[in-house]
Amino acid sequence: MKKIELKFENEEGKTVTFSLDNPVEPVDPVAVSEAMDAILSENAFFSSGGDLVAKKSARIVERNVSEIEI
Amino acid sequence: MALAERIDSRLQLTFEDGTDPISGDQIYKTKSFNNVKIDATADQLLAVTETLVPLQQLVLYSVKRNDTELITED
């Protein structure tokens, strides 16, 4: 199970994360950066620490689960 | 007289996520984004949706906005 996480900084300098399942791979860093720019410019979201003000980072996260027989 | 005040708003995207192998029915998967500004417009939400959808593989089925209103007595 993979996710893409888009991390933004809010007015208090804290991190706000948007995540989406089933990311397109290989990731196009330009498209990711542009999507984050659009989220910032639309300014349609708030957070407990104010508006989103800057892009911080983006990453693909994969979770591996192994069932243990007990 | 009752007053309704919008106190919470969220963006909900529904994606097509394959079909049920037995019934053949379409399966949907939803993804919600909290913390939408109360005064955000449909145009803003559509613009955000259009930039997020290409980052993932599923086909977008619908875009919804879920608002919560607090109802009080006047």
From TrEMBL, chain A:
It comes from Gracilibacillus salitolerans. It holds the Pfam family DUF2922. It comes from the Bacteria. InterPro entries: DUF2922. This is DUF2922 family protein. The lineage of its organism: Bacteria, Bacillati, Bacillota, Bacilli, Bacillales.
UniProtKB/TrEMBL annotation, chain B:
Residues 4-73 form the DUF1659 domain. InterPro entries: DUF1659 (IPR012454). It holds the Pfam family DUF1659. This is DUF1659 domain-containing protein.
